[in-house]
Design a protein that fits this description.
alpha/beta, 11 helices, globular
Length: 293
């Protein structure tokens, strides 16, 4: 069975003509136009996503300190909006548990006490409205461990963990992904995924994990369409509204064909997209299931 999550919420909002704040991405639209957040959730469900992700990825203390928003209100709102559309469309909600500050800058991660306080708050606010917790775009294993512990203190819901990885099959902090996969299985995490990195890097990682595949922990991916991997210590504040990131010209059908290979040969059972992957890509992924390709 292939489960399909949604695509890149922020880049799809931009495609629809919404202006994003480069520093807080979809959180700006969450503040200014919650109806637009409902719309993109609905569009992804209609395209074939059976999981949608809450839009609180950049709703973190790092950006609250810069006076962009009230963190509690927005985290809670992101869960409520996702749940409303999920119920209408018979989908499930993934509650985003993001990095404290940045996804690619391990040096910006604060001390453990601050991480604990943030994750306890985020888990508590999302828990009533989500089905699965998704720790996503993580760069260090320590941050993941604290997030998992906070989730387990409050909830019995399933946990998925997704990493943005570097070349050579390592996390941004340098940890080998085989070691991470084994440790997550021991922690009874339901799935390990890779996101916000190019397709070729994810494929390399899936090939690398093939000989240690454990059916007790699912593998998944939601790649971006970047031509080049995001460098270590990159942060959102370096991005402009014009983006200054080069995207691949890969078509939805080409993307589907790659995913079909992963599904048939590399043990993947969860798929979706990150930056640049909109509903038209998700619709093609749905064809893998509908047509039993």
């Amino acid at each position: 069975m292939l489960d399909i999550i949604d695509g890149g919420n922020s880049t799809y909002l931009r495609e629809l003509g919404y202006e994003l704040c480069p520093k807080i991405w979809s959180a700006k639209v969450l503040i200014d136009d919650p109806d637009a957040i409902e719309k993109i959730h609905g569009d992804f469900i209609n395209a074939g996503s059976n999981y949608i992700t809450t839009t609180n990825y950049s709703v973190t203390p790092y950006y609250q300190e810069k006076k962009y928003f009230n963190i509690d209100e927005l985290i809670s709102l992101s869960g409520k909006l996702a749940k409303k559309k999920a119920i209408q469309g018979s989908a499930q909600v993934l509650g985003s548990i993001p990095p404290y500050s940045e996804s690619y800058s391990k040096d910006m991660i604060p001390d453990d006490d601050k991480l604990y306080d943030f994750y306890i708050k985020t888990v508590s606010l999302l828990e009533p409205n989500i089905d699965i917790f998704l720790c996503e775009t993580m760069s260090t294993f320590n941050e993941v461990i604290i997030a998992i512990n906070c989730i387990k203190q409050i909830s019995t819901k399933s946990i998925w963990v997704s990493f943005s990885i570097s070349e050579n099959n390592k996390l941004k902090c340098g940890t080998d992904i085989k070691n991470v996969y084994e440790k997550l299985a021991n922690l009874e995490v339901e799935a390990m995924l890779f996101n916000c990195c190019p397709i070729n890097i994810i494929e390399e990682a899936l090939i690398y994990l093939k000989d240690v595949y454990n059916p007790k922990i699912k593998l998944g991916a939601y790649p971006n369409l970047h031509v080049e991997p995001i460098i270590n210590n990159f942060n959102l504040e370096k991005v402009t509204n014009n983006n200054n990131i080069i995207y691949s010209s890969m078509t939805p059908i080409e993307f589907k064909n790659i995913v079909k290979k992963w599904y048939q040969e590399l043990n993947i059972s969860i798929i979706g997209g990150c930056c640049g992957i909109g509903p038209k890509y998700i619709r093609e992924l749905r064809n893998i299931i509908v047509n039993k390709l």
